[in-house]
Amino acid sequence: MLWVKAFHIIAVVCWFAAIFYLPRLFVYHANCEDQTGRERFKIMERKLYRGIGTPSMIATIVLGLWLVSYSPSAYFSQGWLHAKLALVAVLVAYHLYCGHLVRVFRDDANQRSHVFYRWLNEFPVLILVAVVILVTVRPF
What gap in Å lies between CA 6 and CA 73, rounded to an integer? Predict the structure, then answer.
């Protein structure tokens, strides 16, 4: 179980690295004015989303479910896990929305300013804080 937990934590760290950095790329991409720069951002966004973010998300979910499978009745009787899983579902939706934005930028269809993406970049921080507190403190 400790090996599964270790790899779960590694996957979570990689996933969060991707979802922290991808919206930052959107900020820079939205500000970019030259075609060469825009093409470079498209490549970076696609590779980050497909090559790091999505595989890390899948590994996080699979390994998390594996951990719960060791004692499902014990875990599902604790409220903190329900709250954590709800936050993970929100984070998956956020991840998928970022994938949508990768396609929007790919198609040169972005209509939002860099300010929107700066705010979007802050959202996963709130999820991370809440999840770490739930897992560590287990308040309910």
Answer: 22
Distance CA 39, CA 85 (A): 36
Cα dihedral 21, 35, 96, 2 sign: negative
6-27 mean pLDDT: 98
Rounded to two decimals, the pTM is 0.94
Please say whether the dihedral angle defined by the alpha carbons of residues 75, 76, 82 and 86, taken in this order, is positive or negative: positive
Distances (CA, A) of 21 to 16, 25, 63, 76, 98: 8, 6, 23, 33, 11
**56-70 per-position pLDDT tens digit:** 999 999 999 999 999
